Amino acid sequence: MSDYDPHAVEEKWRERWAEKGTYEADPTDDPDPTFVTVPYPYPSGGMHIGHARTYTVPDVYARYRRLRGDTVLFPIAWHVTGTPIVGAVERLKSGEEKQLSLLRDTYEVPEETLEELETPMGFARYFIENHYKKNMKALGLSIDWRREFTTNDERYSKFITWQYETLRDRGLLEKGLHPVKYCTRENNPVTTHDLLEGEEAEFQDYTLIEFEWEASGDEKSAVVPMATLRPETVYGVTNAFVNPDAEYVRASVDGEPWVVSREAVEKLRLQAREVEVEEAFAGERLVGERVANPVTDEAVPVLPASFVDPDNATGVVMSVPAHSPDDWVALREAKADAEGMAAHGLDPEAVRAIEPRAILTVEGYGEFPARDAVEERGIESSADPRLAEATREVYNREFHAGVLGEQYGEYAGEVVEDVREALKREFVDRGAFTSMYEFTEEVICRCGGEVEVAEQETWFLRYDDPDWKTEAHEAVEGLTAIPENTREQYDHTIDWLNEWPCIRNYGLGTRLPWDPDFVIEPLSDSTIYMAYYAIVHRLRDVPPEDLTREFFDTLFYGREAVENPDDRALALREEWDYWYPVDVRCSANDLIANHLTFYLFHHAELFDRPNWPRGITVMGMGLLEGEKMSSSKGHVVLPAAAIEEYGADTVRFFLLNSAEPWQDYDWRDDAVGDVRDQLTRFYARAEAVIEADAPDERPDLRDVDRWLLSKLAATVADVTRAMDGFETRTASQAAFYNFEEHLRWYRRRAGSGEAGIADLDRAGARWTLREVLRTRLRLLAPFVPFLANELHERLTGEPATEWPAAVEAWRDERSEFREALIARLADDVRDIVEVTGTDPERVRIAVADDWKRDVFDAVVERALADDAERATAPDVGAVMGEVMADPDLRERGEAVNRLVGDLAEAVRGREAATVDAMREVDERAVYADASDFLEREFDAEIEVTVEADADFERAGRATPFRPAIHIE
Fold first, then answer.
1. In sequence order, which residues have a C-beta less than 8 Å from that of residue 705 and are 6 or more positions away?
2. In what order do the strands lie in the sheet with 842-847?
3. 488-505 residue pLDDT tens
């Protein structure tokens, strides 16, 4: 094995790149530079191996483009906006054990350093310097470190101020009442990035139907609001359900008496309602009461049900058993529980008398769709998980195809989907309906607080503006979306996106310039920061007070945008104009629904079309030993530990080779160890080639040398094509693993020694292997830059600085086909040996007679008749007509017929160059030339003859390119 020391090699190249400023990118004469970005990290904790992949993938592409001769900018910065860092500091200062364990045990923060983390920027700076930046440099990321900044920097805030003043003046920023995610612990709006659980939760706009409780005795009447997503089903209500053990309250809500669950009180307050609680009582008090349907005026009974969640909406549920599988099963269980009903003071017979009411019809169901869906699945209990599936199915089919019954008056006969909103408006106008927001799932803030829906006076971005949506769709249309199937996700997000609250009450970040009590939230201050990268290192020479609205207008819109343009801004504009637009944005797939689409919206509005984003590549999720990584649970691998154990090149190569960027990948220690061993073997073999004295001029080459060079030329083309499509796994597989297979064959064919290196005593082999190594090192340089540059410098005297061209002169279809024949023959012999269990002393090989080659020529002529570039499926009948014109062939009858079919299949779809190679090959000579190799492979005598001269029984079965084989 090699004495390869990855840590020594890697440290050497890190120091050299840093000293030379190798990746500090400045404008050059290159008219079309490449600008690659990735979301800046949020340093609310340490960097784990999943982050390492996120930042290494774009680095590979950046390195590739540099090797292609591009001027490349790959910058990074630090996103600190918002509350997660503030929350982390507060948990640290309060001594929260979970937070302390995360810092000490998972991220290995020294005890004596914890005090430095007790301010938000102190916390951020620790993880920036000791985790992210340190690990990024260790991984060899080709970042221009001059351009780093944090989103709390004063100059960056001036840039964001310009952005939001511009959007406000263009009418795309408004203030109004809007639903927001609200942390009840921090008393602050939050966004997706602030959440510990419920990141995918959406707002549900429930309709509240105001049933009337006509209380008896001393009780006062009150509204009992019941939440539904299907207001049109109000005609089908047969009863209501409450949880008898939950706490309910009578309260004044906007001056009107309501009865709701205790949990609903705070939700209603958050949603801009005035709520005063008057009394509290158990839900049992409502059981047996009757509530009046505000649409039908019918009073229906209230039944007990433990499944009612008091934390969902108002805690009171209306029941429509004919059209809700949930309600069908719940009512069925209530009817069957006579003892339980009696215990709550209900007449079991009265409960059993409740009958479902059909209010609409839908094709494929009977009178009661809910019953059909339940019975079809054999659902016996309200605890059956299939009930949710049944409910979704019924709701969807009734919404899209349900026809309303006669009780709907003027809407009778209409499809629900077409009239739901009109019906809802009519009921609201009657004063019978109102609304309430709720989440689709539980939502928890990173601080541990519960998150509820709140309606607040807030500033929001008007993503519902039709002209802005049109611009965003146009940006998607001109985008290179990788993979292509994500394009429709951007369009879908643009279509459903409405107003987006863009401020919060406190946290780090830029203050809203005209209302400084508020901070612009994280997803809203990270939409065009890529433009800031282009000029940040030079902007530091401009005092913050000079960074006015007019300064940035000049910078981004030019001299004509203002009356007195600032010369400094005009100078900066030249650099911004050189780098923009962003060529590739690498980001997580789940950010299409927010950040990436916001990125497109803001670029489309604030910049001219030539500066809109050119490409976005989405990234998959990382697993660790088959499970999702989780910092909070300590289920992570720290890059520093992985690099220490395996080396940076191994870490990079595993992360890049395990899946395409948009696919999920799984970090497994045993597999990473295998990659390390493979790179070590590669290094050893490379050293042997470097140390061999290869001639400078190309010597005489054998067929197998020409075959390897042909494979090399094809590999260069394949890797280049894959890299252009951002298929980093395909590219690395082709450059490394696939070509290792070619080399393995080459070593077998050319003779091998102890180290597994081809016969280096031969000048042709030494020259060939040197050319192969030189080319492969340049192909591998984006993936394993330390190893590749070290070996390339040892081989050539300089690091890898150019991407290899696919040398067309090396493409040799005849050599490739000849080697393919030899490989297949060897496989066929091996199969026979294994099946028969023999130890061969002699292998006799008989190639097809000349008449069979004549048939092949006829097949080829017909196959290439319609397409000179690629053989089509020839008309077998036409070929037979031509062949049978030859009297000698006509006599062979059925044998010719079978042969034509076999050979037609053999050439179908092959490129013309390959077919030509097949026509020209002398099979007997090929096998004879390979006899030494075959003798080594099978430790047997090899005899090559033609079918007519062979004296073994199966010789007559030989066909072109498939000789007959006899083993003795």
1. 750, 764, 765, 767, 768
2. 941-946, 842-847, 964-967
3. 999 999 999 988 989 888
